[in-house]
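Quick entry, no commentary yet.
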Amino acid sequence: MNTEITAEMEREALAKKLKELLKKKGKTQSQMSREMGIAVTTISGWMLGEKYPSLKNQQRLAEYFDVPRQALLSNNVPSLTPRTKRVPILGSIACGEPMFCEENIEGYMYDYSDKLTNDNFFYLRANGDSMMPTIPNNALVLIRQQKTVENGEIAAVVIGEERELTLKRFKKENNTIVLLPDNPSHLPIFITDSQKETIQVVGKAVSYTKDLES
């Protein structure tokens, strides 16, 4: 089974779930389109299993049908082969919470288990264009969890009291850490020795995938 087939299975399973929920709600696709403010062609694509909704639209669907968002996702794939693993997609990291607690997980991706040598992987959605052209905006970046990276590698870093996850190229110069954007229109972030407690390297970027669907 390849990645495309797995994605197709997810779309078809979600389409089936949406049809069940729409029937239970007693609404048509046109009514759903008007009430959600989403184009009927987009909704039709979801219902036909041709497209997969973004995380934002998954949440809107969950609110429209008054179900937890995980109810749309947890059984999306009818059967996973032993070679397939579910990898969490992380957002910001809540203060005091473990990295992979439910509060921090926005959704899941399915990937080959032989690509993931252990369980210490997660996805992070690139937010903005600071790492372009290397990593495009809205790409899902696969991160291998590790506490250190080499100079020049792209790291997932938790910054500040808000514990927000960000992607930057890591560089250490003497007692200063520099987090470099690949986009020259953005400024680097300088972390002095006295500020090191404000950041935490949590992993290394190893690949990304770009979702072109609605």
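second:
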Amino acid sequence: MTNEWHKSTKGVHAGTKRSQYGEVSESIFMTQGFVYDTAAQAEARFESAGPDEFIYARYGNPTVAMFQERIAALEGAEDAFATASGMAAVNGALMSLLKAGDHVVSARALFGSCLYIAEEILPRFGVEVTFVDGGNLEEWEAAIRPGTRAVFFESLSNPTLEIVNIEAVSKLARAQGALVVCDNVFATPVYSNAIAQGVDLVIYSATKHIDGQGRALGGVILGSREMIRKTVEPYMKHTGGSMSPFTAWIMLKGLETMALRVGAQTASALKIAQRLEGHEALSKVIYPGLASHPQHDLATAQMGAGGTMIAIEVKGGKDGAYRFLDACKIGIISNNLGDAKTILTPPAFTTHQRLPLDQKAALGITPGLVRISVGLESDEDLIADFLQALDN
């Protein structure tokens, strides 16, 4: 029956398991270990634990299992493994798949820490990484070769909102026997159809829209049951990147309201982008929901909406961006996203500050670029605030 529910219903009910007390809100099983009735039962558990049998919190926990089952149902995946952070999910997904001598093709436009893994960590362990323009299918086709182990990309890039054609890149990868790993955080589980579009492993930073209220770090890797349990889980449970039970409970509470939050944020983002587009203080407004976005049709087909993120380029470079940021009275300056609060970020000097100037320029990360994560405030208030800040 769960598969027949809408995402909003799955976000409230999927994966729920109640104790003997019949609680309404999911229980938090704050324990690092579990007791066995007999020595023989302990032996049997270690040999083959059942779906509701647990050994150690690093291996699994009832609260974490509920979160994994619920997010898998939302995503349309067979299984999931919850991690300590979004970057633990990125690292775990890639490192569990790869070994020395493997070849990976990655989109060039990545979040700073993702880029660090692709540029620094993977080559350190003997993995060859080829970078391409994520929106250019010809570059993907030329780079993916027989023997390529995996392709990696953000479906909607951070911070310039470039869209990768998931279905087309997945077809190119499959033709050469490569696996597809997609960081889907900007698309959110609400607008995701990544599994059906050909992705093998979907990654989320649960810190973002899943929590949605700035409370906890978390991540999750989703895919087939065989890949999650036979490839991802062994690596994650032995290297210690598992999610805590308390964090899993927070994420379960976040999933209950995620569809409502993301829907409202997306509606506001479109109104704000429409109002800001063409403002004399801005060089550009980047939002997939605008017809002016070069990949607007792809965004509509792939996500069905423009999402919660906007990027604007303020004239005057760094000084112009900083004047705008400092003049905003509602949006807060921080580096998270997907929060109930509107968050403003200057990526060139924060999340992507370590990139060389030529690489920032190639990615469109200019000194005047401001990333806006639209929150749950009144869109009228946000528009008025942004306009006064631009006129400051």
